[in-house]
Design goal:
This protein has 337 residues and is an alpha+beta fold. The chain is built from ten helices and seven strands. The strands form two sheets. A five-stranded mixed β-sheet has the order 2-4-5-7-6, covered by helices on one side. Strands 1-3 form a two-stranded antiparallel sheet.
Length: 337
């Protein structure tokens, strides 16, 4: 709750209270000043409860998480606040202010209904004002965050280019080695490594690749890992064919597999299992959680890199879940436009 919203609520409530008292001052010449003051306080508190109640509802994190529709949340907020204000101002406050009595224009039997409708209309106005403020504030913050992400992405690309050994050099060297060796296993390994670097060359300047192309990279990368770890690691991929034309930032799956192998124990006694599958609107990459000792305090720079690319390039967020024996990353499915 920001200071400017508190000040605005106080000002609006004071104006509403003064306007509400004008008919009484004009219509009842013999009305005592103490009654005018009490009625002003009455209207001021009525307005204040509605204003700060709307603020509380709009900025309530639990409510925002459980109710995604602003219309549904607004209806609930206004009705609840109107009932609460009705009880406060028509039943509790009169007992606190003995001189606060009902007027002849609104007999007691009619006043609760009138006040409830008044609170509904007032609450609707306040809710709209605060929601407009919040939307404008979020839009401004999103623009600032987008600029920050763009700047961070640019800096990351510059650093990456500075530290990168030329893939062209490695790719050409691997092709040369493949022609020199006679052993088929060595040739196959070099060819798969060449495919990995071919992919890096092809997509290093691009922001998107199809899932099918990414899976071809994963197959080559996994061949190389299997040559090293043999039966200590296993990979299960269960993705429908119709999903393979969706988009993904290049090297995302490869990086997640690399992180899983790098930070977890993979041995014959404790094999490391990795799965890639689809669940609702996400591609799930999960692995058994059996961390190495030196990985307990890892900063997770690879995951931060993936998260940054999804936010910067696609305006989407990934989900990272860690359970007792599983580590899971949920990648939003990005369909072609």
């Amino acid at each position: 709750m920001k200071r400017n919203q508190i000040i605005l609520g106080l000002i609006i409530s004071l104006v509403i209270a003064l306007l509400a008292m004008t008919p009484f001052v004009l219509g009842y010449g013999n009305l005592k000043w103490n009654n005018i003051v009490l009625r002003t306080v009455y209207s001021f508190l009525n307005s204040l409860i509605l204003w700060f109640g709307c603020l509380k509802f709009i900025y309530n994190k639990k409510l925002n998480k459980n109710i995604h529709s602003e219309i549904a949340k607004g209806v609930i907020a206004i009705v609840v606040l109107a009932l609460f204000t009705n009880i406060m101002c028509d039943y509790i406050l009169p007992k606190l202010f003995e001189h606060l009595r009902l007027t002849d224009d609104f007999p007691r039997i009619k006043r609760p209904g009138f006040l409830f409708l008044k609170c509904i209309s007032q609450g609707l106005m306040y809710y709209f004002i605060i929601l407009t403020q919040k939307t404008s504030e979020e839009k401004k913050n999103n623009q600032i965050e987008l600029q920050r992400l763009k700047q961070a992405g640019l800096e990351a690309n510059i650093i990456s280019l500075k530290e990168q050994l030329s893939p062209h050099f490695l790719f050409n060297t691997l092709n040369t080695l493949s022609t020199l060796t006679k052993e088929k296993e060595a040739q196959d390994l070099i060819q798969e490594l060449s495919k990995v670097y071919r992919y890096v060359l092809q997509y290093k300047e691009k922001n998107e690749a199809t899932l099918n192309e990414e899976l071809l990279l994963v197959n080559s990368y996994w061949y190389i890992l299997k040559a090293r770890f043999e039966d200590s690691i296993s990979l299960q991929i269960n993705l429908p064919d119709e999903l393979k034309q969706s988009l993904i930032p290049p090297l995302t799956l490869q990086l997640l597999i690399e992180n899983a192998v790098k930070h977890n124990i993979a041995s014959e006694e404790k094999p490391l299992s990795i799965k890639i599958y689809v669940d609702s609107e996400f591609i799930i990459v999960e692995n058994l959680l059996q961390p190495k000792r030196n990985s307990l305090n890892n900063s997770g720079s690879g995951l931060n890199n993936i998260s940054l690319r999804y936010k910067l390039l696609l305006n989407k967020s990934i989900e990272i879940n860690q359970y007792e024996r599983l580590f899971q990353v949920k990648l939003p499915i990005i369909n072609k436009l």
